[in-house]
Amino acid sequence: MSNLAKIFLYPIKSLDGVEVEKATILPGGALLYDREFAILDAQGRFVNGKRHAKIHLLRSKFSLNERVLYLQLPGSKSSQVFHLDEELKSLEATLSDYFGFAVKLAQNTNLGFPDDTDSPGPTVISTATLTEVASWFPGMSVDEMRRRMRANIEIDGVPAFWEDRLFTASGETVSFSIGDVQFLGVNPCQRCVVPTRDSYLGEAYPNFQKIFVQKRQATMPSWVDASRFNHFFRLSVNTRVAASEVGKTIEVGNNINSYR
Fold this sequence. Notes:
CATH architecture of one domain: Beta Barrel
Order of helices and strands: EEEEEEEHEEHHEEEHEEE
CATH topology of one domain: M1 Pyruvate Kinase, Domain 3
Largest sheet: 4 strands, mixed
Structural class: alpha+beta
Distance between the termini: 16 Å
Oligomer: single chain
Helix content: 10-25%
Shape: globular
Radius of gyration: 18 Å
CATH class of one domain: Mainly Beta
Low-confidence stretches: none
């Protein structure tokens, strides 16, 4: 039986994630604490892995209940501690020094800062998919692939690429539920340069995108709506959540039901 195996939140966009046992739906459709903060430069652009590879070298841990970030800079043996509500200015100064230019921390407690603002719900992938894709790259662990793909929701008890059932023709959605929370699957997630790099070191895996595209196309299940793939550098599924689901909670172990 398919079930919710893992939940990951990324309190500061582009930094390390936190694995949790349960998560609550926000009014904007995202998960509480997910991408609540984003690092911005003076022009208001995201400071992320797409534009600044050195962000991969930052290690972060979060205490969500205490609203505390433990940030370890490269070369440091210990973490610096910042309260996310009371010490943002100090955190901004530390990150500005690290990047070599001024940054600010923006906060959005309603929606967070999703990559896809039209479908800001949690991203979905299966454990089997991560295992299969990791096997395309000799020496890469499933956990490393998981860190590269940065999905929120991981489903077990299903075959590889099962999540591709959660989208259909453009303009249509696929209903599915996790526990008693209803979701709408929208489209396969377009990947950026981030998955091509080591999640700890920022070093590029040789020909990652080329290998991925070739394998993704070759392993595409016959029932997938191929019209949704203008290219094959896509993995995991973007979702939306209806207003009726706000405040509800998903929890590890919940059953998954798809209505397609």
